[in-house]
Design a protein that fits this description.
It is a single chain. By secondary structure, this protein is mostly helical. The protein has one domain (2-221). It has seven helices and no strands. The protein is rod-shaped, with a radius of gyration of 28 Å.
Length: 223
């Protein structure tokens, strides 16, 4: 059954089917690159978020915490950078207190944190579009290669006096490899996308909660 090994089937495929397979392999490699990069990135984001929340609620000296983050004494992570942007805007407002009322200072700090939150989320979500695209279109690309390969297999029967399973099986088998590669590219991409999207949604909730809680703290301090 050497002639039906995976490598030999790929080698015997038509040029168009080979092109489809190469495209699917490329998409799969790109997906796995994104998967590993996002896995490490989101793990780090969750860890630094937990660490910052612990430090924030344990040490209420906001000025000292802000200074440590500004000087890079600790790994701030996304939530630390959100805090830094809000605190920085609030301190700028304090320097212009004669021109700004307390409510305006807090609102400015909240807007700065919202903008920083969006930047952090954009960074965390980078690459997810590629995973979604791979998960949704890879099976169809593989199916196209399969259909084309089966068409070629049956077209080749026109030159055969007696059609048998042995004569048509290799052509159909090599065509089905395209579908298999499409599924191999799509399944990990879909699983990873759903996992990462869920993690980002949970982080978004924590970021939003922190922005509101920190805004309330600033509001009380300005009274």
């Amino acid at each position: 059954m050497n002639e039906l090994s995976i490598l030999s089937l790929i080698a015997q495929a038509s040029p168009l089917v080979k092109l489809v397979m190469a495209l699917l392999v490329l998409m799969s490699l790109m997906s796995w690159t994104i998967i590993f990069r996002k896995l490490f990135g989101l793990t780090s984001a969750r860890r630094t978020t937990r660490s910052f929340e612990s430090d924030f609620w344990k040490d209420r000296d906001l000025g000292s915490l802000y200074q440590q983050i500004r000087e890079g004494d600790r790994g701030a992570g996304p939530l630390g950078r959100i805090f830094e942007s809000g605190m920085s805007e609030y301190l700028k407002g304090r320097q212009q207190k004669d021109h700004l009322d307390n409510r305006t200072m807090v609102d400015n700090a909240r807007r700065a944190m919202r903008a920083s939150t969006q930047r952090e989320l954009d960074q965390l979500e980078s690459g997810l579009g590629m995973l979604a695209t791979t998960g949704s279109v890879s099976p169809y690309i593989g199916l196209f290669g399969t259909v084309w390969g089966i068409m070629n297999a049956f077209r080749g029967l026109a030159n055969v006096e007696q059609a048998t399973l042995a004569s048509v099986a290799p052509g159909i088998a090599e065509a089905l490899v395209a579908t298999a590669i499409g599924l191999f590219a799509a399944i990990p991409a879909v699983v990873a996308y759903n996992r990462f999207a869920n993690t980002i949604d949970r982080l978004t909730g924590r970021f939003d909660s922190f922005v509101e809680e920190f805004s309330n703290i600033l509001q009380r301090q300005t009274r």
